[in-house]
């Protein structure tokens, strides 16, 4: 199962929030999860770390992301170092070219990214969503066979969307907790979603959901999958 799976996100921590179980599962099955993060995430809060310059926060978040990546089993993290909070100001073709370079260089076969609403509505997330769509839908990178959106369970239930795969903790919830804890500067947003990491138990971690939106030129194929690796050539 030596498959290359590319996670395309905007900020350090996006991967841990939405995809920890999936990434760890891919790594455990012998696959190769690779992450592209577009910005250093240095325009935001610092949690309980107190005041920091943007340079200090960028350095801190890079270390945090590497710690989380080690826990999740990500083999390589690629940093674009674009402006945090400013991705929608980046020329769409430029952003798409960065994504295409990443997918081509790592011979990515399966791509995971944000859904239409960016999951949280964050403008950087939505800019990444569009850049990935542009590259994948145009078939710009021949190695890419499938695109999934990392979606929220509420959306999946409300829309009755077909072709949604859920990946549960499978006894691995402490792994996700530890990866979240690695993103120390982001502890406030982590606590808002998951609760106090010192206190949480397995019930704080629901499944992660992935909607298959494109497979070798077909948009929204209707099928039931057991794994993102189903039906690869
Ligand atoms: Zn983000």
UniProtKB/TrEMBL annotation:
InterPro entries: GlcNAc_PI_deacetylase-related, LmbE-like_dom_sf. Pfam families: PIG-L. This is GlcNAc-PI de-N-acetylase.
